[in-house]
Structure formats: structure tokens, C-alpha cells
């Protein structure tokens, strides 16, 4: 039915091409099952403090596997299917906007979320573009994983860059006819595909290979929601997703006092975790953190997942101070976070140097341009300056908070420290 509408919309040519392509035979790859496989170990290692532990060899292996393993199948992600109501919605935390992203499965059954390249490394987000319509940047996803690891948060699932052959690793291995139908060949003879077109497909929304190879980020999937349920919670510092709207936090300088009285921000570490996340987002320049996710098994003390960082690193010259509002308005920071930031502000461990070195490990290097790397140092100093100002005003004891200070014991988290089934 929907395809019919597209045809009527004057896209006859593209769709007959797609239909011709749709007759291709699906490549059947062999599957290897290994109970010792890296993605499974990654899942089993998730605990209430972080997604993986420091120097975890499992993550290094997972990174290698995602980088090189044969892709055996491709599909839309569950949240994209939810847009059409065609999904197992128990597997969706929150239905999402329609961006170009796919779920790829590897030979060892590892699953990864693929976000294709939409923008060159040196392209900047134009001044007049709102954060909520900004493109998704695959290199931002990659860089955010490295930064999160360097900050010792370990709240971003492992991400790698990879050149994906969208013909042999997507079109020819997908069983999903809707996905096959959005493939076409461009006038330059490159293979392209659209985001799911709910209304009219426009070629400017497509991503194209060269002729088949397309850069993208691959983010390791978290355990399924039936094994490790997660919930999505609106950020108290959510922005207005309209052209003119203002949220309370933008106009009320005492907003944090209100938040501090409200569950779950009135005890434990949740507010400190939000502040960590705001520091992370400020460093990458991400204004799009509307929700955050947590694993329900770990109760209120669990860490916040830093998923979806693709809208970071859009403008190297802009330091969006409003992203830091949770820190500047609440004037609190975990001691461990502050110590790490102070370390990375020293010349021997300069954040941009550590990032540059870390990003060199990715096969799509360079991941960030120099101006974006240097912006990290500048922004880090701004974070430290905000903390310094708070300390001057309120004193160290008020501002610098010991980790897990008023830890409220949660029944599930207290007995079950890991995700083991
Ligand atoms: N690595 C992952 N493992 C499992 N689920 C994930 C992973 N990354 C993202 N998701 C889920 O998929 C949803 C959509 O992902 P993401 O936000 O990255 O894409 P998006 O296209 O920007 O969506 P949105 O428009 O909702 O922001 C997330 O809210 C999250 O629930
Ligand atoms: Mn998103």
C-alpha cells in the first residue's frame, strides 16, 4: 500500500530499479556458535558500575570482531520498525525518529547498530540548523565511545568504525523486503539506500556507497530487553523540541533546588550521574540528550547509559555552555570525575593527546579533525572553571561529593551485581 503511494509520488523509476534489485538471491552465510564469544562475554560482564571494566580484554576482542567479522544479516532496528508498528515492541525502549540506521548481525551472532556516514569530517553543522534536525555523525559515535572510556565512565557500548559493503553486507544478506526496496543505484552508479520513507522518498535523504563501500559506525548491542530490561527517562534538563519553546531550567536559576527534592534525584547518585552525563555532553557538544536509559536490575543506583552520541562534534568553535547547566546550577560533582578531569587537564595527559592516540586505533582514522580535538581541551578547562566557581561560592565540601555518598540499597542490585542469567 505504502509502496503504491510512493510510485504515485513520481518515484516510479527508482522503485522499478529497486524492484529489479529485490529479485536478488539472499546470500546464506555460515553461522558459528561459540559460548566463549566476545559479545556474550561483554553482556555477562555488565555490572551496576559500568558496562565493562577497565582494561577488559573482552572489549578489545569485541572491537576486533565488529571490525572484521563477516556480516551475515541486516535489518532495520527494532525502534525503526516500531514507527510502522511492525516490531516486537518489547524490544524497544522508545520509538525513535527515522534516521538511517541498521542492525547488522555478524557470523558469531554478534549484533551491532550501523550508522552510515552522512557528513565529511571537516563539515560543520550550519549556524541555522537546530540540534534536533542535525545530521547523525558516525565519527561522533566512534569518538564518543573513546572519550567515555578515557573519562573512565564506561557507559557507552563499544563502537568501531568500519567500511561496510552495502551491497554484499546489507542488500544481499537482508531478508527484509522493505529494506531491499529502499536500495537504488545513483546516476553515478553508486549503490544507495534511503532511510525508511514514511511519506515521500527524496534522494537527498539517501546514503550512497562508493560504489558499494560506505563508512559507518558499529555500536555493540546491549543484551535484549527480556534479559536486561532498561527504561528511558526524560532528562530533567530536556530541551524544547520546538523552534520557540523554553524549558523551565532555561529561565529559572534555582531549578536545581526543585529537582533535588524530587525522586529519584533527592537521594543517592542519580543527580551526580546526570551531572557526569552533562559534562560528557558538553565536551562532545551534544545538545540532543533528551532521554537517558538505565538498567532496571541495578535499581536507582545504577549507572546511566550514554547511548546515541551521533549529534556530538558538530561545531568545533562553539562551546554550548547551556549543556553544562546541571553542573552549573546544582554545583555538585563526583570526586572521581573531578580527579579524572584534573588529570586530563595536565600537559602530560592532555585530553586531546589521549583522544588522538586512542582514536588512532580505529580503522577509519582520522576520526576527528584537529580543531575538534583541541576543542576538547578548551571545553575541559571551562568545566573546571565552573567547578572552581562553585567551590569558591559554596566551599569544597558542598561541591565535591564522594562517590556513592548516600547509597540507598536497592533489593535487586544488592543481591545481583551482574547481568548473569
Ligand atoms: N548499542 C545499543 N544496543 C541496544 N540498543 C541500542 C543501542 N544503541 C541504541 N539503542 C536503542 O535504540 C534507540 C535508538 O538509538 P539512537 O538514539 O542511537 O538512534 P536515533 O536514530 O538517534 O534515535 P532517536 O531519534 O530516538 O534519537 C535508543 O534509544 C536505544 O534504546
Ligand atoms: Mn538519537
Count, helices: 15
> How many runs of DSSP E, i.e. beta strands?
12
| Mean pLDDT across residues | 87
Spatial arrangement of strands, main beta sheet: 1-2-3-8-4
Give start-end ranges of low-pLDDT stretches.
Answer: 1-13, 405-421
The helix/strand order is HHHEHEEHEHEEEEEHHHEHEHHHHEH
The Cα radius of gyration reads 22 Å
Structural class call reads alpha+beta
The amount of helix comes to 25-40%
Total separate domains: 2
- What is the subunit organization of this protein? single chain
Secondary structure layout plus pairing:
Blueprint: H1 2-22, H2 38-45, H3 57-68, E1 71-76, H4 78-83, E2 102-106, E3 111-116, H5 138-150, E4 159-165, H6 177-181, E5 183-185, E6 191-193, E7 207-208, E8 213-220, E9 230-234, H7 248-251, H8 255-260, H9 270-284, E10 291-295, H10 325-330, E11 333-334, H11 335-344, H12 351-359, H13 370-394, H14 396-399, E12 400-401, H15 411-415
The site of adenosine-5'-triphosphate has 18 residues, from β8.
How would you describe this structure to a colleague?
The protein is an alpha+beta fold. The protein folds into 2 domains: 2-220, no CATH class; 230-414, no CATH class. The chain is 35% helix and 13% strand. The chain has 15 helices and 12 strands. The protein has a 5-stranded antiparallel sheet with strand order 1-2-3-8-4, sandwiched between helices. Strands 5-6-7 form a 3-stranded antiparallel sheet. A two-stranded antiparallel sheet has the order 9-10. Strand 2 and strand 3 form a beta hairpin. Helix 5 (138-150) packs across helix 12 and helix 12 (351-359) runs antiparallel to helix 13 (370-394). The longest helix is centred in the C-terminal third of the chain and has 25 residues, at 370-394. It is globular. The model is unreliable at 1-13 and 405-421 (pLDDT under 50). Bound molecules: adenosine-5'-triphosphate (ATP) and manganese (II) ion. Residues 79, 93-94, 96-97, 99, 101, 113, 136, 157, 219-222, 293, 307-308, 310 line the site of adenosine-5'-triphosphate (ATP).
